[in-house]
Amino acid sequence: MPWPSRKRDKGAVADKKEPDAKMAKTEEEAPGKKEEEKSTKPPAGSSKSGWKNWKKTKESDSGEEESKITYCHWLLKSEPESRLEKGVDVKFSIDDLKAQPNQTTFWDGVRNYQARNFLRAMKLGQQAFFYHSNCKEPGVVGIVKIVKEAYPDHTQFDQKDPHYDSSSRKENPKWSMVDVQFVRMTKRFIPLSEIKTHHLAHKADGGPLKNMMLFTRQRLSIQPLTQEEFEFILSLEDEKPH
Fold first, then answer.
1. Membrane-crossing residues (predicted)?
2. Cα(8)–Cα(27) distance, rounded to whole angstroms?
3. Which of 68, 85, 161, 209 is surrounded by the fewest CB atoms within 10 Å?
4. What is the pTM of this model?
């Protein structure tokens, strides 16, 4: 049975010429809240785990110096705390996903053009981080996989849905969604503050998170990850939190 739409997506800078985006699994912040990526400001400095040590390990495993720079993984933001949008609670945590039949859901409600295009680029079987957003402590909580590639998002035609779009036509739908399935929880919660510390260090020394979209296009709820970005963040789950 479908559940209330809970994905939110605020129009990014590149989409200013488009109509104002309705929200999706989490991008536009609730009124009065600061943008989550700006709410945590860890000091710049060297990454304690040392991306060079991580890279050395990867080189010994693969025999290659660096992965090819392609986007083959994703980061999906969702709000774990209750918030009403047009009278509908848009809350959807990873525990809510786990409670669904077959631990599978459609990722509906995305109303940002760049995020929609990322949805359309997703391939069957690709993995993504499930990221809790717009909450007290945002960060990565688990891993999901794409189990159905992009198809029309039915909520754009539902006048009772907070993400209804009167300008979209069934013969040429504007908005798409994919189906995702729970894979596993990460071994520990990986907070935004920790990821940002590595990002700042990598900007200085050329590490894998130097251009991570979580910090260059903060407001997008659907974000691509390179193989290096995905693997580095995944490696953090085995470390003790700083």
1. none
2. 5
3. 68
4. 0.77
